[in-house]
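Practice problem: Transglycosylase SLT domain-containing protein
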Amino acid sequence: MHALRANKLLRPVFLLNCAMLVLCALPFSSLHAAQQQTQAQSLTLPPDIYAEKRQHFLTLEEKLRTYSRRRINDFDGEIYSLADYPLYPYLLRLKLERTMSIRTKRDVKQFLHDYRGQPVSYGLRYKWLNYLAKRNHQQAFLDSYSSGMGAKLTCISLNYRLQNGEPAKQVLREVDTLWLHGQSQPDECDPLFAKWKKAGLMSPTMVIKRIEIAAKEKNRRIIPYLKRQLPASDQYIADIWLSVTRNVSSVQKSRLFPLKNVQSEREALVWSLEKLAWQQPATAAKVYERYDQQGVFSQAQRHVINRAIALSFTLEKSPQAHHWLERADAPGANDDITLWHVSHLLRTKQFDEVIRIIENAPEALQRKANYRYWLARSLEQSEQPMRATVLYQQLAQERHYYGFMASAHINTSPSLKNNPAPKNSNAIAKLAVTPATLRAVEFFRLDRATEARREWYYLLTHIPNNQITDAGILAYEWGLYDQAISSFARSGYWDDVERRFPLAFNDVFSEKAEAHNISTSFAMAIARRESSFRSDAVSPVGAAGLMQLMPGTAKYVAQTKVSRSQLFDVNDNVEYGVQYLRYLMDKLDNNPVLVSASYNAGWRKVLEWLPVNEALPVDIWIENIPYKETRAYVKAVMTYQHIYEQQLGSSNNIFPQLTSDMIPSADAVSTHPVTGVMQLAPK
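Answer key — structure tokens:
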């Protein structure tokens, strides 16, 4: 009887169609904020027809989580009564997890089949396979196994296949990828590796490859074990890697590299020289020349080492930078070498050389906006204004940082080219009631943003491409601004400027910006770049909320303890974020370029990047920012600020200022007379 009830519960559910039809017939309208909704974040979701069932869901979910396992089956009737509620599959999932046993094999298998690839199934197969492996249910494990389940379960699967009589030659071919891993593999892989070794598949080449991988992943501990797997004649390769990973400067020791096994030794040489180049480029260059004269390196390896030495000298502003950039900027080299070659020449005012480099670059590079802009700038500086103007005019028709800069050079307004995506009301109404959309909405109402975004991502990846823009419009109308932004980005519909740059939390930004004398457009541009207006965003390093504030930063500007929950509160987050912008403005002489760079990389680092002897034009300084992320960040924020000025109905245009301003030299840095802290402000 229990099995029949379970199968009935696991059957694909079509009862949602009734609710879908109801929603199709209803217009979109405002709604009460979701339960425990982040304060100040107002959503405009569709009419709430699930309020009662949502409460029932929460009550039942709590029972399934907390009641004893033997009582779980008593709730089958209650579970089925919610079969037309969007989150019904999550109750099924919870029941299966609580009652998991070999007797529920058919139920688990059916669930994994019915909801394959959907967020509700994430992680369940992994739990099920671990359960089966722990109890040695081999056939059930093999029936349920799917590739990509991690090293432990993969090794168990291969061992089971061998034990069940599958030809060893066929199974052991799949061990290579498990072996070629930089970290120690789970204990479950040891018997498999032993059989693989016995079959003669652990060749010296395979062992050396793993040593290389482990060394590059900074796992020196495994190398002595791997060394013992090598014949005596090859064990010195392991010693090379142990030496250079302990101290990369040891690459200078000729005795380490007898060039007996050139292919393996040069892997260590290339890795070491690239690392050393970022610390001591002159030393790396000397060692590199010694081995290059012996023909040790391939052309691809030369590109790698030349790049590291050239860029290190460039970032040091060394006199040797020019020579090494010329040497590194060769056919087949990484594109960023040409970029840095141009940036270096711009900083040193060699505009004729910039023209030469760009005009001799591959056509694909010449077509890129940044190279067209710098060609125009260099032509202008080289007294070729007519050619420069033609390029500026072409660029000024494009909506990006370089297009906006070009427009300022020819005294025209930047082109936003706002072309709103056409709204297909019927298509959007149907999209609003797909199961994934309904589940996402329910999770948003429950303030479970992570689960909601998983469902929305699933939606975007399982609808036709021509409907992704519709999803963006739908998310925008519901106030799910980060989802709208990601949907338009995924669809490639870039011209809907109003929806891609929403006036999210405009009242909050306007109030806080006015209070601290910060441009509203600047604050919104920072938030758009930082979080896409996702109030619960958290970065890998712990920055939180709309303006991605570190807890320590918030505490500093607030001059009081700030809880983590406050950083997710829109009002508090914007308050602290705008206060921090004011702090940076005061420290950096109200320079928005330096402030935006500091918001990303830290003001101390930005002061280190100031020109040494003389001021630099803003655009050339930005192009020479050492951090790729910060370069892109500053360009984006300046661009977004102009877009938000237009969105807010202002005619202000920051780009003429950017084309005329200079970034001051380090000589302008002073010490505050009271705090003793460095600042870029009048002494």
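Discussion: The chain has 41 helices and four strands. Students who identified this feature from the tokens alone can consider the problem solved.
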